[in-house]
Amino acid sequence: MPHAAPTSHGGPRQRLLGPPPTGASEIFQVLRDGRPRTRAELAQITGLARSTVAARVDTLMALGLVSPTGGAVSTGGRPPSLFALNPAARVVVGADLGATHAIVILTDLAGTELGRERQDLSIADGPVAVLGWLISAVDRLLRGADRAPAELAAIGIGLPGPVEHDTGRPINPPIMPGWDRFDVPGLVQGSFDVPVLVDNDVNIMALGEQSANWPDTTDLMFIKVATGIGAGIISGGVLQRGAQGTAGDLGHVRVPRASDRLCRCGNTGCLEALAGGPALAAALNESAQVPLTGSRDVIELVRSGDATALQAIRQAGRDIGDVLATC
């Protein structure tokens, strides 16, 4: 049974104890595009019985997640009611914890940004320090948007390493010392009692790219080149995580041209040691007029038209292409 949760606006909002009834999530996903629909349209799209749709719509309305928006055009008799997502009913948090940065964004249910924070932060500082900053940032964003913690629906976190999806724990992450098998959701839920979903950052990027730009594409590979190098792979419309979340971990594939390069993972010959941001910065430091430390510095040098930097980027692209061609 739902119960009322107080909010910063003084009125109650309904929160559901336990998972929503079967079918409610399907209806919610359909309505996320913002288009109002009738019960009959929802039944046709989801394949649920009309009686089930009616009950689930009533549940979503009681929770404040869906609201009536008037009536559709009548073909005779009373016009059927239209229902649409209520984007202001809840807020969600998305966090990108990279190797050298952290970004946290607060949005409503339609994805409209309500606030963000960015911080230069090393993932090597460890989970307690990094997640402590994340928790503080979420609290500041909620207060800045005048939203109560009770209005927070969920938190999603992307990490720069393999993640065991069922538990949200990093598994032997090469560039994340101190994070192996750390209970990321458990620590965050100690401050916010909401679902905390954790995945490899490039997997999340692949899903976002597909949703925003390629919704009809069922086979897609998204490549991220930054401090590390990785791929998010969608095949048959399903994200492929692989054993222990290591699918698409391209950065630690051996390449002949890097046979003598020591990688941060402890091995030699990894693609990341040749074409990752820090590796490119180190290679360019001899010719650069100012010290380079990572991807951002390399990008700025390329944008300035530096011929050596452009050549290095092109060669990195060839090296990455060689690895992709063998996958």
From TrEMBL:
MF term (GO), any: kinase activity
The protein's name in its UniProt record: Sugar kinase
InterPro entries in the cross-refs: ArsR-like_HTH (IPR011991), ATPase_NBD (IPR043129), ROK (IPR000600), ROK_cs (IPR049874), Tscrpt_reg_IclR_N (IPR005471), WH-like_DNA-bd_sf (IPR036388), WH_DNA-bd_sf (IPR036390)
Region (Disordered) location: 1-23
Protein keywords: Kinase, Transferase
GO BP term, pick one: regulation of DNA-templated transcription
Domain HTH iclR-type: 26-67
Transmembrane intervals: none
Annotated family: Belongs to the ROK (NagC/XylR) family.
Lineage, top ranks: Bacteria, Bacillati, Actinomycetota, Actinomycetes, Micrococcales
